[in-house]
Amino acid sequence: MQRHRRTRTVGGLNCPWPGCTKMVHGQSGLTRHVRHVHHRITQPTPSAPSAAGPVPPDNEDPPSSPPHFASPSPPHSPSPPSSPPPPDVDPEERRRQIFGTKNYHPHLTGDPCDKDGNPLAPNTPPPPPPPPPENAWAPFDDEVQFRVSEFLFRKVEMSQGDIDHLMELWDLSMKEHGGCAPFKDHDQMYQGIDDIPIGSAPWKCFVAPPPPDLPATAPEWKKQSYQIWYRDPDTVISNMLTNPDFAHEFDTAPYVHIGPDGKRRWSEFMSGNFAFNHATLIYDNDNSTKGAMYIPMILGSDKTTVSVATGNVEYHPLYLMIGNLHASVRRAHRGGVIPIGFLAIPKGDRKYDNDVEFRTFKKQLFHDSIAAILKSTRPAMTTPVVRLCPDGHYRRVIYDIASYIADYPEQVILAGVVSGWCCKCDAMSSNLDGPANRRTKATRDVLLEELDDADLWDNYGIDADVEPFTEHFPRADIQEILTSDLLHQVIKGSFKDHLVEWVPMYLELTVGKSQAKVIMDDIDRRIAATPAYPGLRRFPHGRRFKQWTGDDSKALMKVYLAAISEYVDEKIVKAFAAFLDFCYLVRRTDFTEDDLNKIDNAVRDFHHYRQIFIETEVREDFNLPRQHSIVHYRDHIIQFGAPNGLCSSITESRHITAVKKPWRRSSRYKALSQMLLINQRLDKLLALRVDLGVRGFLPPLNDRPPDPFDVGDEDEGPVDDNRIIAEVIMAPTREPKYPRNLEALAVYTQQPDLPELTRRFLHEQLNGPTDNLDIDDCPDIFSNIYVHHSATAYYYSPSDISGIRGMKRERIRSTPSWYGHHRRDCAFVTQDSEKPGFKGMSVIRVMLFFSFTYDGKEYPCALVHWFDRYGAHPDSRTGMWVVKPDIRGRRRKPYLTVIHLEALDRGAHLLPKFGSRPVPDDFHYAYSLDCFEYFYVNKYIDYHANEIIF
Question: Coil, helix or strand for 277?
Answer without folding.
Answer: helix
